[in-house]
Amino acid sequence: MKFIKYGKYTGEPADAIDLEELVKRLGNFFLQSGFESQFYGVSQMGPERSMEALREAILRALQEGDLPDSAMSDELREMLNDSNAMSNQAVKDLIDKITERLANEGFINPQQPPQVTPPPQTSARGQLGQPQDRTEARFEITDKTMDFLGFKTLQDLLGSLGRSSFGRHDTRDLATGVESGGVSRPYEFGDTLNLDISETLFNAVRREGAKVPIEMNYSDLMVHQCEYQSSCATVVMLDCSHSMILYGEDRFTPAKRVAMALSHLIRTQYPGDTLSLVLFHDSAEEVPLGELARVQVGPYYTNTREGLRMAQRILLRQKKDMRQIVMITDGKPSALTLEDGRIYKNAFGLDPFVVGQTLEEVNKCKRAGIMINTFMLASDYSLVNFVQKITQMCRGKAYFTTPYTLGQYLLMDYMSRKTKQIH
Fold it and tell me: How remote is the C-alpha of 415 from its chain's centroid?
């Protein structure tokens, strides 16, 4: 008699891996800014977007992270930690299945290389060499991955800030509303009819005396006051000059993470606000937030004035009560766009011509009622003086911070809206 023995299905090792945790660990790989390839030329467009580079990044994430004990056998664990793990067929199969899951779940979009028809092997002049296929399978990260990384970054930053209260932006003005936040005042035509019942009755009794029925006049009405909350239009000016990846430190990737977290915060907690992104380098350009993860460093110089000009044009189109520029930079202004379109460049010291023209643009922001908050990722003495001049002219705030604390300072500034300057 034929017997069939059934065992417990333990699943594939790739199925036991938490994809969200894996994507979080791959965040720096997905958001690379050219730091790894700076010695090979920053003009290459996304050299790390190959499927082979993704497989190597997944292997590093698996080697550095802990997986559930039941996820894979001890033998496979040893294979992962082997220095030649990528040459092992079992490890290759595991990583291929993980890559397939990432594609099926919508985290990446694989792109097959174009098909190239090989030339004939012989010709009238003799035999031809073998064709060289230089094309390689690549991938693109999806909006789902960008949104997920922005959410995780925001979650981590808010966790480090402690207990935070979400809401809209508070100002120093008072208005009538539902939530009371100040002493009551007499009702005026057009106010929200949020009556302070006790004060209204007290006025009537004080005027007519304690009797029934109580007769009230228009002048007796008192209304609660609450803090006036406004909408805000923000432009993030992100320095992508070459200095953002020099000196042995990647400053651009943390800045990209913070911009993504701010975008997620505004979309989920401040739906009336708007956020735009401007990159400034030799010149300046507005970039859709959806393309932020794909942006890399370059070109080389820092044209701060052109970035301010573009930010002003964007903000002046917005019909918002509050308009501000959040400038993230690590260097001095070293370039200007002249009237004829040529770019004047001087990377040695603070050029008086460049600084003067840049401060004149800051003065235009002040006259337009646009506040500039500067997050400086450097602490050079001359740069400190330059940033302090910007702060004094626009009554903004200056934060001298590091890539590791940039997110905390920026989110605290955006949510608190305090008037205190931090130097």
Answer: 15
